Amino acid sequence: xxxxxxxxxxxxxxxxxxxxxxxxxxxxxxxxxxxxxxxxxxxxxxxxxxxxxxxxxxxxxxxxxxxxxxxxxxx
Length: 75
What we know:
The protein has helices spanning 3-37, 40-63. The chain is mainly α.
């Protein structure tokens, strides 16, 4: 593995890590504030819906070849 490949892999790792932590923080704050105004079951349902939408979005990006993950990985 060349030095350029390692630098690219590290850059992707850092970007993915920060993105995941950002979304986790948003998700936790949404759950905290939604639990105050909605029933706990509704908050859980909305959480599952958000997870499904994010997963479907990633699969659509893979199908459109925007990200380089083959569809066979998901199914």
